[in-house]
Amino acid sequence: QVQLVESGGGLVQPGGSLKLSCRASGFTFSWYTMAWYRQDLRKEHEGGREGVATISSAGSTWYSDSVKGRFTISRDNAKNTVYLRMDNLKPEDTAVYYCNRDMDWGQGTQVTVSA
């Protein structure tokens, strides 16, 4: 079955960096567009998950306006892994970050940006 396992979250100060990883299994990873979403659970009543970045099978990328220029999505098809490098983190980046492929989701990894 499809499995998506995120790692790399944690507590970081504003202006700091983190790199998230998502290890995939159960499907031919290189064929699929992969995505990162996030959800601030403190604001769950205000809406669902927000798309952050995507990377296609050909390596084309898309970023939300809120992270463009600060976050970088990449993939390593040999390792069945997609990454999200996050630089110049802001308190408003605090959220649970989820890896996604089509209708499949990982369990999420918490990122907290706080002084």
Q: Can you give keywords for this protein?
A:
single chain, 115 residues, mainly beta, 7-stranded mixed β-sheet, 4-stranded antiparallel β-sheet
Briefly, what is this?
This protein has 115 residues and is an all-beta fold. It has strands at 3-7, 10-12, 18-25, 34-39, 50-55, 61-63, 71-76, 81-86, 95-101, 104-105, 109-113.
Produce the secondary structure layout.
Elements: E1 3-7, E2 10-12, E3 18-25, E4 34-39, E5 50-55, E6 61-63, E7 71-76, E8 81-86, E9 95-101, E10 104-105, E11 109-113
Describe this structure as you would to a colleague.
The chain is built from no helices and 11 strands. It has 115 residues and is mostly beta strands. The strands form 2 sheets. Strands 2, 4, 5, 6, 9, 10 and 11 form a 7-stranded mixed sheet that branches. It is globular, with a radius of gyration of 13 Å. It starts with a strand and ends with a strand. The mean pLDDT is 96.
Please report which band the strand proportion falls in: under 5%, 5-15%, 15-25%, 25-35%, 35-45% or over 45%: over 45%
* Number of beta strands: 11
User: Structural class of the secondary structure composition?
Assistant: mainly beta
Approximate shape: globular
Question: Helix count?
Answer: 0
The biggest sheet amounts to:
7 strands, mixed
Low-confidence spans: none
**SSE sequence, one letter per element:** EEEEEEEEEEE
By oligomeric state, this entry counts as single chain
Radius of gyration: 13 Å
Mean pLDDT: 96
Our measurement of the CA-to-CA distance between the termini, rounded to an integer number of angstroms, reads: 40 Å
